[in-house]
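Sequence in, structure out. Go.
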Amino acid sequence: MNEKFSQYAHPEALVDTQWVEDHLKDPNVRVIESNEDVLLYDTGHIPGAIQIDWRTDLQDETVRDFITAEEFAMVCEKNGISQDTTCVFYGDQANWWACYVLWVFRLFGHNNVRIMDGGREKWVTEGRELTKGKPSFDKTEYPIPPKRMDDLIRAFYEDTLQQSQSNGPLIDVRSPGEFRGEITHMPEHPREGVLRGGHVPGAENVPWKMAAREDSTFKPVDELRKIYTDGCGLTPDENIICYCRIGERSSHTWFVLTYLLGYKHVRNYDGSWTEWGNTVRAPIEKGD
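Output:
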């Protein structure tokens, strides 16, 4: 096993690029690319990898929520994913969206999930094979999940408000400028119609990218502990909520806290600032 991985709480949740290359023809493995830039996949991707778009494949087109359990099963079936398939996620932006899609798969109860450390950037930098050919797989039978795990790994507005009022751990993973209320969106990213800037009262600002190295891989466990255990004072049994603007960056932090550090009760508030900053009378703090 990769020496760095062996130090994490759940080393089985990560694979490296060589592991992926060695399993490209493994029928029990499905490699899944998910990017912020949805056009990247068509410019070249890992051979045999499918693309799952968080917006078009996983989001309800009317209500701001995810697709139904029946629709999730259909997404899996058309991509040749069975309940026992090992799903390996990767993408751009140090695996932002890969972690988000993994988190959604966990919401629907798919447990055999992994992240390719370093994501798309590392695969390309190492000069590994890319293809523009789109794979096709035989349709599988995927049982309709009996329920979503909303109560275990997802937080809603009311949960986050209660967490704030009770002084529970809240991790705001956005940029310092967003946290302070100086801007309402990431630089060079589109505005999402947020009417107020700032942060949830009591939240601590720990930008998501503090957990990633320059090459987009995750930092080793001792460095992560300095950030979250020592720096934030988080303990393994606490109820923790993390958020960003729409839940994508906070999915990265959720993955780090849950799988790499082994925190047991971490929830991702995917409504995040686009909900909180638009909610009438929602309490807001500005500054540090």
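Check: The CA atoms of residues 173 and 279 lie 20 Å apart. The chain is about 30% helix and 10% strand.
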